[in-house]
Amino acid sequence: MSASLLRRGLELLEAPGRGKAPGVLQRGPGGPRAAGAARRKKAAPGPGRSKATVKGKVVKSAIEEYCKKKAVNHLRTNLQYMTNGRFVADKAVTQQVLTQNRGRKSKDQPPEKKAKKKSEGTVFTEEDFRKFEREYFGTA
């Protein structure tokens, strides 16, 4: 085992209330590897830091994400925008826009207006039928 691993192991085993172990030699702050050791010690994974994360990724709050993705009702602002406008399009233009935006499937088409059927009455009277019957069948 190297001296640094042994030192680390002793640091982990020492009681939290006590200071450094009395018999262990310690390097001074100006040692050749002091900067690297300080950097490693600073970046050592503690209980609050997870090594299993992507570098630079910020953990976001679930509440913030929910609020961000929650549907927003824009009806009031849209109505205010529409009512404040002074330009009114012609009916022909609006009808053309509506027909262009309507779907092309048969279910999207409005029902066609059918011409009203005339009442199915005959042009012949009862007297004409009797006359025809006499001429054609020769009876009555």
Descriptive labels:
mainly alpha, 6 helices
Tell me what the structure shows:
It is a single chain. This protein is mainly alpha-helical. The protein has a domain at 60-85. Helix content is 44%, strand content 0%. It has 6 helices and no strands. The longest helix is centred in the C-terminal third of the chain and has 12 residues, at 126-137. It is rod-shaped and about 140 Å long. It starts with a helix and ends with a helix. The model has no long low-confidence stretch (mean pLDDT 78). Belongs to the AROS family. One of its GO terms (cellular component) is nucleolus. Its main location: nucleus. Residues 1-55, 96-123 are annotated as: Disordered. This is Active regulator of SIRT1.
Give the gist of this structure.
The protein is mostly helical. Helices cover 44% and strands 0% of the residues.
For the largest beta-sheet, the strand count, sense and barrel status come to: none
Name the beta content range.
under 5%
Radius of gyration: 47 Å
Specify the number of helices.
Answer: 6
Structural class: mainly alpha
Total number of beta strands: 0
Mean pLDDT: 78
Give the oligomeric state of the chains in this entry, treating copies of one chain as homo and distinct chains as hetero. Answer: single chain
Shape, please? Answer: rod-shaped
Give start-end ranges of low-pLDDT stretches.
none
Give the N-terminus to C-terminus distance in angstroms: 136 Å
Helix content: 40-55%
N-to-C SSE series? HHHHHH
InterPro entries: AROS
Protein name: Active regulator of SIRT1
Organism: Dromaius novaehollandiae
Keywords: Nucleus
